[in-house]
């Protein structure tokens, strides 16, 4: 599908808007996260012929624009004001805002997005919480909120390991497999190293000759 010049301009403007909005947010939810979600969403959308690609792209770029973890409860003010400022048609605006509302895991536990655009952006956002990037972001978020390593590890079990079975699209499911496997491998190694540490006797750790080590 060929996008019009106007649509391309909306997408470029939305990138610029997100870049400014996330200039001061921590590494776990920065502009690079938005761009990775955008890129995964574009990839998934290419296998979903019935979706509105422009809506997917704009929803991906604006999906965290009003995240309650980042901004004081703004409803959908940021996303809405951006869409209005670009005079995007009301029907498309509604499609984008609906998709964004359905993305959040914590608010929608057990509920699936109803629109294909929402399903795609939610899958893309979840993929960024998995794999090596997911590990890095979890500890970055933990650091931003003064959490212990164990608290971050708990987040793997409470949320990240569940994501694989909650993907909406076939492409999302396939992309999630490898990332899920990496999460399991990381946890296994982490627990192994932690257990090795607790099994070491103090005199091994502080042996002056160093030979036992
Ligand atoms: Ni996100």
What's the helix and strand layout?
Elements: H1 5-21, H2 31-45, H3 53-62, H4 77-85, H5 90-101, H6 116-127, H7 131-144, H8 149-158, H9 170-199, H10 202-205
Helix pairs in contact: 1-3, 2-3, 2-6, 3-5, 3-6, 5-6, 6-9, 7-8, 7-9
Bound molecules: nickel (II) ion (NI).
Rounded to the nearest angstrom, the radius of gyration is: 20 Å
Mean pLDDT: 91
Assigned CATH class: Mainly Alpha
The biggest sheet amounts to: none
Q: Approximately how much helix is present in the residues?
A: 55-70%
Uncertain ranges = none
Distinct small-molecule ligands in the complex? nickel (II) ion
Hey, roughly how much beta strand do the residues contain?
under 5%
CATH architecture: Orthogonal Bundle
How many β-strands, per DSSP? Answer: 0
Q: Structural class of the secondary elements?
A: mainly alpha
Order of helices and strands: HHHHHHHHHH
Please state the overall shape, judged from the principal axes of the Cα atoms: elongated
Span of the ends, CA to CA: 63 Å
Give a short summary of the structure:
With 213 residues, the chain is mainly α. The protein contains ten helices and no strands. The protein has one domain (5-199): Hypothetical protein af1432.
What does it look like?
This protein has 213 residues and is mostly helical. It has a single domain (5-199), classed as Hypothetical protein af1432. The protein has helices at residues 5-21, 31-45, 53-62, 77-85, 90-101, 116-127, 131-144, 149-158, 170-199, 202-205. The termini are far apart. 34% of the residues are buried. The structure holds nickel (II) ion. Nickel (II) ion binds at residues 33, 37, 63-64, 125. The site of nickel (II) ion has 5 residues, from helix 2.
């Amino acid at each position: 599908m060929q996008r019009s010049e106007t649509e391309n301009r909306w997408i470029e403007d939305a990138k610029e808007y997100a870049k400014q909005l996330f200039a001061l947010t921590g590494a776990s939810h920065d502009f690079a996260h938005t761009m990775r979600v955008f890129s995964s969403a574009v990839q998934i959308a290419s296998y979903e012929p019935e979706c509105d690609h422009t809506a997917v792209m704009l929803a991906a770029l604006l999906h965290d624009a009003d995240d309650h973890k980042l901004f004081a409860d703004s409803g959908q003010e940021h996303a809405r004001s951006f869409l209005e400022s670009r005079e995007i048609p009301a029907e498309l605006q509604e499609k984008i805002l609906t998709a964004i509302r359905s993305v959040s895991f914590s608010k929608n536990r057990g509920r699936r997005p109803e629109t294909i655009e929402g399903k795609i952006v939610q899958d893309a956002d979840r993929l960024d919480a998995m794999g090596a990037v997911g590990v890095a972001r979890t500890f970055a978020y933990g650091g931003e909120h003064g959490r212990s390593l164990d608290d971050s590890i708990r987040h793997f079990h409470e949320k990240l390991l569940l994501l694989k079975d909650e993907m909406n699209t076939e492409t999302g499911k396939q992309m999630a497999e490898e990332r899920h496997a990496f999460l399991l491998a990381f946890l296994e190694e982490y627990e192994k190293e932690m257990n090795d540490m607790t099994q070491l006797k103090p005199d091994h750790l502080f042996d002056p000759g160093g030979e036992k080590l």
